[in-house]
Amino acid sequence: MKEQPKLPKKPFIFYYVVVLLALMLINALIVPSLNQPTQVDYGTFLDWVDEDKVTQVELDQTAGTIYFIAPDDSGQDKIYATGIWPGDDTLYQRLHEKEDIQFNSVVPRQNSPLLSFLLSWILPILLFVVLGQLLMRGMQKRMGGGFGNAMTFGKANAKIYVQAQTGKTFADVAGEDEAKEALQEIVDFLHNPAKYEAIGATMPKGALLVGPPGTGKTLLAQAVAGEAQVPFFSISGSEFVEMFVGMGAAKVRDLFKQANEKAPCIVFIDEIDTIGKKRDSGAIGGNDEREQTLNQLLTEMDGFDGRKGVVILAATNRPDSLDPALLRPGRFDRRIPVELPDLQGREAILNVHAKDVRMGSGIDMRAIARATAGASGADLANIINEAALRAVRMGRSEVTQADLEESVETVIAGYQRKNAVISPQEKKIVAYHEVGHALVAALQSGSAPVTKITIVPRTSGALGYTMQVDEGEKVLMTREEAVAKLATYTGGRAAEELIFGDYTSGASNDIEQATKLARSMVTRLGMSEKFDMMALETVQNQYLGGDTALSCSPETAAQIDGEVLSLIRAAHQKAAGILREHQDKLHELAGYLLEKETITGEEFMEILHR
Ligand code: ADP
Ligand code: MG
Ligand code: ZN
């Protein structure tokens, strides 16, 4: 997000150096010149001694200098110093004879004790006070907390955004139409509250954007800031987390105070889960600071008047971890899901980002969108950028379809490893393995068409892979499709066993995927005979990886394992059967793939069906 222009930030060390330099200058120039005795030669000194002008003498033997005091022309006592004192013994005698001379006392080498006191004591203190204040102001600006807050007690440094400053509008957010609609309503309310008042409708106080990372939650909030011509306060949840207990709460208080003054306005709290986590999480010692901050937030949300026109937006990808008190009506009572984009959404997002890039003609974005099922908006933005980078690398001035396709694979599987050394035998194994997957997929009903097979190694460690892309958007998965998918996963290993009589570690990822699928079939999708429609696992973190937790007895858990195993075993046998039956095609395709390294779906189907 763009921020309001602020004073240029300088590092602390800058202020330190400035003050240090100033002190050094004062020491080197001013102080000495005030205290510096006037130089006279030794002869003049002796003359003055004879003339009884000298009143006080200090013989500094180590420095070889004599300091003495004598009145100057106007009768004021003044300090003098001789040049090098030759150290003749007769001097003692001579000085001794002069009764008036205080001999060998210490001559205070300064002429104004008050001034010197000021210079050596008061000035440095003053300078350090100034330094301290500069530092503090610097800190406040930098982190809005710490020392600054310890003194002034709580100034949230929420930045105020106004229309021009985020530069984003709803047009920048592709897809996500439902979310945009819900937010549009809020924007509309802020523009025209009378319309809503007339009918007696009140706006929800808060709306919570929930969805997986990279789906455009922050972007949507920025777009709201761009659309709503009202002040927009934006702060991230982590900015409330402070070193000292009570700081975060003070910041919340200040934020809402500012917001109330500026109403109508929008307050956006990004990543609210940082402060909004469920309380009493059982952590040892608890987390007082966070809880206080959350409590303050709850209090503030209750305290302000919704009709005044303060709308609070928040975003999170962990809605399940939020404290229920935050979600109850009167607080974040509206929940706006920002889900992963569907086929159309993906195409629209690709097109939005393609606007910033010079595209060649005849680009088929729909094909790219189809190949990127499950990608988030951020992934898609990345794909466009990778394609542009590739075009530059290739010395072209436009992005081509091939760039886009390669960049999809880069984002999915990592970069090509051009110089990877793989022995011919291993290459052969990989070719049979991949064709195994492809054949099993193609020869079963209910699996997505194969679009590409490659044995070019990738930086992610994949030695090759088979890409399958659904024709349209798939939302549901039938049992048949799930079983076909399982068999496809096992197809690689099955081909290795069939052709080489042995197998390799190359199937590790397939094994992982197959097990995950089989397990969810049993525990969550109700796709096993034994457990029928019983839910055995609950998803914990729907938007972040979707970890699951078993909720059943140990005996049942053992039975689940048995069920999963039998599903996988059946799939493996099915795959082996398919490949045995079509062994000739397996040889033919693997040979072709070895030669070409990459074959398209059409080539594959052509060979398969001839
Ligand atoms: P989130 O906050 O949900 O994790 P962001 O809003 O930070 O995700 O999105 C990251 C980037 O991804 C955005 O800056 C934008 O470039 C791109 N992006 C995500 N969703 C969309 C979308 N719906 N339309 C256009 N770009 C998107
Ligand atoms: Mg975000
Ligand atoms: Zn495999």
UniProtKB/TrEMBL annotation:
Record GO terms (molecular function): ATP binding; ATP hydrolysis activity; ATP-dependent peptidase activity; metalloendopeptidase activity; zinc ion binding
Pfam family, one: Peptidase_M41
Record keywords: ATP-binding, Cell membrane, Hydrolase, Membrane, Metal-binding, Metalloprotease, Nucleotide-binding, Protease, Transmembrane, Transmembrane helix, Zinc
Any Gene Ontology CC annotation: plasma membrane
Residues binding ATP, per UniProt: G211, P212, P213, G214, T215, G216, K217, T218
Membrane topology label: Multi-pass membrane protein
Cofactor note: Binds 1 zinc ion per subunit.
Active-site annotation: E434
Domain AAA+ ATPase: 203-342
EC class: hydrolase
Required cofactor(s): Zn(2+)
Subcellular location: Cell membrane; Membrane
Database matches in InterPro entries: AAA+_ATPase (IPR003593), AAA_lid_3 (IPR041569), ATPase_AAA_core (IPR003959), ATPase_AAA_CS (IPR003960), FtsH (IPR005936), P-loop_NTPase (IPR027417), Pept_M41_FtsH_extracell (IPR011546), Peptidase_M41 (IPR000642)
Annotated EC: 3.4.24.-
Residues the entry annotates as binding Zn(2+): H433, H437, D510
Main subcellular localisation: membrane
Family (UniProt): Belongs to the AAA ATPase family.
Classification via PANTHER family: ATP-DEPENDENT ZINC METALLOPROTEASE YME1L1 (PTHR23076:SF97), METALLOPROTEASE M41 FTSH (PTHR23076)
Function per UniProt: Acts as a processive, ATP-dependent zinc metallopeptidase for both cytoplasmic and membrane proteins. Plays a role in the quality control of integral membrane proteins.
Protein name: ATP-dependent zinc metalloprotease FtsH
Origin species: Candidatus Anaerotruncus excrementipullorum
